[in-house]
Amino acid sequence: MLHISMALGDYDINRGLIDGRVTVQGCDTSVITGLASPERHWRFLRHEEFDVCELSIGSYLAALPENRFVAVPAFPHRRFRHHYYFVRADGPIHTPKDLEGRNVGLRTWQTSAGIWMRGILQHEYGVDLTKVRWFTEHEEDITGVQPPVELRRTPGNIERLLLEGGLDALFYPETLPSFAAGDQRVGRLFPDAKAAEQEYFKKTGIFPIMHVLAIRRTIAEQNPWLPRQILHAWRESKDLAMKRLENPRSVSMAWLTPLREEERAVLGPDPWQVGLTEGNRKALQAIMTYAVEQGIVAEVPEVEDLFWPSTLDALPKYVG
The pTM is what? Predict the structure, then answer.
């Protein structure tokens, strides 16, 4: 039996694999959790510490020329991004176009969240990204990325710079701790971010993909059956998580059922689709276009070229 290590985020959609209710057929699997996403991605990209990794799709695209990894069309993390444009509450930015000529902070240029957020601003709101002064806090996971803009490194903590006025805005992968704590110095560019996100989905049909399941190419080539088994296992884990949400006792939220009904009314019955569905193609094509425009990759590959070939084929059905 093949032993594999798998690094995943610790959330419901992965939990079937984490707690062992779901297994990868033919494998003895060690699942590693507890790593923050930036650390998990860095350790996989720099040192290939895991056989399988939930990986930033932006970093996966940046690493394509190295030919070290393959992926399956399973997307463990997706997130709309309008909630994560933060601005100084007393600052000069009130509309997306106000970002031009201003100082804007990022963790890194190639994070998936940043690629999506810049692409959305450019394509949906007409922001000229070359007119923004960009500041990054950390070095890139993949070296050699050539942004079409000058990047400046921040001299200190990027959130503190926003709060103290050194930055006018900060595009962040998560909710800023200061905002969550109620700090009055920081606000959102889109005050009704949920409405903006729903409008974006209704217009584009895109539920942004943040992460993909990636595999070391060497182990996939040595075991060509493995990528499909990983895809099957993740789909089963995802289905268990969705099934659990049908029971309002499963989550301690007063309005879980109406929230689920609202989500389905907007996003459809299965927002976490597996494979190259129409919605997934739209999302993948969008981020690949943004990645080229932003210097993450030199050219847009075919969507199918992102994934291990056998994971794209439908299995034949037996008719007895």
Answer: 0.95
